Amino acid sequence: MDDLLAKARALDEADPLRDFRDRFVESPDVVAYLDGNSLGRPPRATAERMDEFVRQDWGGRLIRGWGEGWLDWPLRIGDRLGELALGAAPGQVVVADSTSVLLYKLARAALQARPDRGEIVLDTDNFPTDRYVLEGIAAERGLNLRWITTDPAAGITDEQVAEAVGEDTALVVFSHTAYRSGHVADAAAITRTAHAAGALVLWDLCHSAGAVPVDLDAWQVDFAVGCTYKYLNAGPGSPAFGYVNRTHQDHTQQPIWGWMGHADPFTMGPGYHPAEGVRSALSGTPPILAMLPLITALDLLEEAGMDAIREKSLQLTDFALELADTWLLDRGVQLASPRDPRRRGGHITLRRPDFAGIKDELWTRGVIPDFRAPDGLRIGLSPLTTTYTELHQGLRTLTNLLE
User: Fold this and answer.
1) Where, in this chain's numbering, is pyridoxal 5'-phosphate bound (predicted)?
2) Are 349 and 337 in contact (CB under 8 A)?
3) Is 349 annotated as a binding residue?
4) Residue 341 pLDDT > 60, yes or no?
5) Architecture category of domain 69-301 in CATH
6) Given a cut of 90, is residue 235 above it in pLDDT?
7) Which partner for 345 in 17, 177, 360, 366 could form a disulfide, CB atoms 3.0-4.6 Å apart?
8) What are the domain boundaries of the chain?
């Protein structure tokens, strides 16, 4: 047994979260699942909860279920998500839509609050949806885009933001954890810098929620969005979440006026009158079935605790770096992620020109990372489901292929 395998097994034995792995569905053909930052494994309890809901709540109560609680799920589940993972007091988070739709809605709401300013600041390496949505809004509203060029192996910095924002900046939009490198931005400092210039901030939390501590209220963030199918294990296409700071709720309005955001949805009368508070961020009928897996995931998150999750996340990425240093970095592989644990999220990225084809071969051998063009292999490590031994097996298989 090599020393690193012995270390992996010792880390697994000492892991306070080790028993959580057995509470997720296994994939019999998978040796190492290293893509939990794209799609988390399903909890076993999710299937039981959905079956019970279909037979009893939906099947038994039928349409009566709307009046018995379903209508409030976007806010009730949003409050719980805010408390457990986002550092948000009640009344500021809703679960609805997709990340793209909520990003559009909240960006438009933020711009409404800065009508005399004509610029959006964003970075060149943000996730494509963020860039595309903002490009569309700029074209729609006749706004300027100020692009910050970021290093794909790092991410946005406060110093870059300070140089970019000015008196015409209405909104800045960045990812808290960069989707490519895993770099964690200094959200508190960047938010302060944007506010000092009179701008508002919208954070994308897709690669943070459930893996990296977030403290939206303490950071005085204005708006935020994120998905729930990565570290929150709520399933493919599960609904997104949006955060609207209480200070903006009475004087901003998102542009997709639907009946669920109306002050009295069942009046069905003429004219739109927005609901009070964060409920006005809703548009259409809540995706009740799609929220069920998120309830299960939040149960697990509460039981494990964000502090323990973050601690294991850092230990996993530390071990991934040790394996990469020992086996890979002398084989034409480059690290494209921060080594500083304060700036490292839940995944690391390795680069080599031929990784696109190697990813395919890894998948045939049961090792599942993902690839990000042009040459990045992301090693995504989900604290509740990834073991150190699994990580060792995955990177050992990659090393064998390179040899």
Assistant:
1) 99-100, 127-130, 204, 207, 229, 259, 285
2) yes
3) no
4) yes
5) 3-Layer(aba) Sandwich (3.40)
6) yes
7) 177
8) 3-44+305-402, 69-301
Would you state the structure tokens that stand for residue 320, as one six-digit string?
């991934």
Residue 229 in marked binding region: yes
pLDDT at residue 390 tops 70: yes
Tokens of 327: 């086996």
- Is there a binding annotation on residue 318? no
Q: Which of 283, 387, 368, 293 has its CA nearest to residue 34?
A: 368
For residue 1, pLDDT over 80 is answered with no
Q: Give the 3-state secondary structure of residue 25.
A: coil
The distance of Cα 106 from the centroid of its chain, to the nearest Å, equals 16
Task: Please report, for the chain, how many H helices and E strands are present, in that order.
Answer: 14, 13
The catalytic residues are 127, 204, 229-230, 378
Beta-bridge mates of residue 349 = 378
How many other C-beta atoms are found inside a 10 Å radius of the C-beta of residue 6? 11
**Domain pair 3-44+305-402 / 69-301, same fold:** no
CA dist., res. 228 & res. 226, Å (int): 7
Tally Cβ neighbours within 10 Å of residue 246: 14
Top pLDDT among 268 and 252 is at 252
Mean pLDDT score of the chain: 97
